[in-house]
Amino acid sequence: MTGELTPLLKAAIGFAYVGGFTFVAIGVYLSYRRRRLHPLLLVCVSAISFSWIEAPYDWAVYAQFAPAIPRMPSWWPLNMTWYGLPASVPPGYIAYFVLPPVIGAAIGRRLIARFHWSRPTTLLTVGLVVGFVWAFLFNAILGARLGVFYYGRVIPGLALWEGTKNQYPLYDALAMGVQMMVFTYILGRTDPEGRTVIDIWADAKAATRLRSSVLSVVGVVLIGHLLYGAVFAPHLATKLGGWVTAGPTAELFPGIPNQPP
């Protein structure tokens, strides 16, 4: 890979590592205090568990990262990202997918307390809106507009700045918003003991706290995978169907050929 790490690229990489570590550390601390896995830690585990799907996702949406960003080794499983998956992706998934639900859950709880709105509907709605806005700011502005990464091809009529190297598929923000919507619900809908709906189910199925914790981890990982697989499936279908066709012909990054159709 060629190129130099600009301050912007360093900040993006720093967000991935520092943000991921910080959320995990807070989750571990809160879990230690309450003597059971905290919802924040469960969401962190779920986020990093499905980070392996990022590479196929990149391939399906023609995402291409700045060449200066360090990459995973070539033997990395399903390393389908054009010119390699960024090494910061696994910890970055924690920072990227956990921050919006934390904000969404806080906003949702305030709205519920003030207006007495339905808790499930409010958390899901707020989570979707916050997740969509966050994904747009991160992927469209930080990524596509500022050049951390580009989308080489998009579905015609469903993208901003279509036909330029800065084009951004709006359906990407919707997909990410749906993922964060469910995480917001998990974080925001807890019982008086601080248990999520997953914890309540696990406690009903397990005879000991340890087994309940294991079931909670398995449950949140499974939910994360099923949900991410569901939002990834349309991207894969449109890619394989040949519908992702709009985009520039010039190289997105000088000296690096674009991902072929």
Task: Describe, in plain words, how this protein is organized in 3D.
The chain is mostly helical. It has one domain (7-240). Helices cover 62% and strands 4% of the residues. It contains eight helices and four strands. It has helices at residues 7-34, 39-49, 54-61, 89-115, 119-145, 170-188, 197-205, 209-240, and strands at 63-65, 149-151, 159-160, 168-169. It has a two-stranded antiparallel ribbon with strand order 1-2. Strands 3-4 form a two-stranded antiparallel sheet. A hairpin with a 7-residue loop joins strand 3 and strand 4 (168-169). The protein is globular.
What's the gist of this structure?
The chain has 261 residues and is mainly α. It has helices at 7-34, 39-49, 54-61, 89-115, 119-145, 170-188, 197-205, 209-240, and strands at 63-65, 149-151, 159-160, 168-169.
The total of helices stands at 8
Global morphology: globular
Radius of gyration: 19 Å
The string of secondary-structure elements, in order, is: HHHEHHEEEHHH
Number of domains: 1
Strand content: under 5%
Mean pLDDT: 96
- Counted beta strands: 4
Percentage of residues in helical conformation: 55-70%
Gap between N and C termini? 22 Å
Widest sheet, order of strands:
1-2
- Class based on secondary structure composition and strand pairing: mainly alpha
Largest sheet: 2 strands, antiparallel
As residue ranges, the low-confidence spans are none
